[in-house]
Amino acid sequence: MGYMCMRRKTRVVKIGSCLVGGDNPIVVQSMTSTDTRNVEATVQQILDLEEAGCEIARVAVIDQEAAQAIKKIKRRISIPLVADIHFDYRLALESLAGGADALRINPGNIGDKKKVQTVVKACQDKQIPIRIGVNAGSLDKEILRKYGAVCKEALVESAMENVKILEDMYFQDIKISLKASSVMLSVEAYRLMASKVDYPLHIGITEAGTKDRALIKSALGLGMMLNEGIGDTIRVSLTGNPVDEVWAAYEILRNLGLRNRGVELISCPTCGRCEINMIPVAEAVDQAIRTIPDPLKVAVMGCVVNGPGEAREADVGVAGGRGFGLMFRHGEVVRKVPEANMVPELLQEINRLREK
Ligand code: SF4
């Protein structure tokens, strides 16, 4: 791949089998939307996420029953599992006992120092990292009062307070996230954070909205940060199926030359030269290729005049004619197919390439 971003130098943290930070590939994360106490549904969603390429899954642990579910879930999944906990240190301990590979908990919210120490000690014993997750929507009241409003300094100060609590207990297996629904606030906060510590950063734009909106916000926010070398794990968060988050994360990473998973679709906007009903063709191809992990380039072009040439870098493609389509490979036309067969024939070509 030609273009590569310069990564920020970070410490390496181990989350289960997954190495995060340093020169390790940027890791794709997601979070389940199921009730963690419903083990069946949660396992199924994590298996779906795994199949889509998700490398770390996070689950919300809201009570003891959810914490106890960790053990049952862990047995049936392959990717590392992060237990997301607010306030209650007992949930952290139970999750650790169940085999959680990391905790997302803010030590500042646990309260009593002894309780924090108990959690930190348990993490130290098992070499389990802690992700400090600061969220603009739940900033510490003291900090909010100090700054008067949510701002990058407030987010970073809140994270640093939590970092200090852990460092004072000689704990440095830390990952940090600073989430806000504003793209620019998130980017500025992460930039500031990156200038202060060398812990790996989990980046994302939170509460980013429904699918299309979240994709735009995430592509912008994550794109800017990744391009500056910031970010060791990423999550695209959207109101919808988390499997879509994983697909979108790989699209963002591929476009920046940082990971290379999945099929890239090149399709033209069509113009007055197009003589086929092209949008449904492109949509059908898009749907069919989304689950393919191979790094291929596939093109769907509106006309035979410019199509193959415009999509020269595609491994395989189809260009519309009048009632037919031309199949092409690397810009060279290989055969003619009836319009009605364009989609299945293109998919067949893709399968042939995958088998090679
Ligand atoms: Fe127009 Fe053909 Fe280019 Fe598509 S490939 S935009 S139909 S000229």
Automatic annotation (TrEMBL):
State the source organism's domain of life: Bacteria
Give one GO term, molecular function aspect: 4-hydroxy-3-methylbut-2-enyl-diphosphate synthase activity (flavodoxin)
Reaction(s) catalysed (UniProt annotation): (2E)-4-hydroxy-3-methylbut-2-enyl diphosphate + oxidized [flavodoxin] + H2O + 2 H(+) = 2-C-methyl-D-erythritol 2,4-cyclic diphosphate + reduced [flavodoxin]
Q: Does the keyword Oxidoreductase apply?
A: yes
Give the record's GO biological process terms: isopentenyl diphosphate biosynthetic process, methylerythritol 4-phosphate pathway; terpenoid biosynthetic process
Would you tell me the protein name for this molecule?
4-hydroxy-3-methylbut-2-en-1-yl diphosphate synthase (flavodoxin)
Biological role: Converts 2C-methyl-D-erythritol 2,4-cyclodiphosphate (ME-2,4cPP) into 1-hydroxy-2-methyl-2-(E)-butenyl 4-diphosphate.
Origin organism is Syntrophomonas zehnderi OL-4
Cofactor(s) the record lists:
[4Fe-4S] cluster
| Organismal lineage | Bacteria, Bacillati, Bacillota, Clostridia, Eubacteriales
Asked if the Swiss-Prot or TrEMBL record annotates the protein with the keyword Iron-sulfur, the reply is yes
Keywords from the named record: 4Fe-4S, Iron, Iron-sulfur, Isoprene biosynthesis, Metal-binding, Oxidoreductase
State the family it belongs to.
Answer: Belongs to the IspG family.
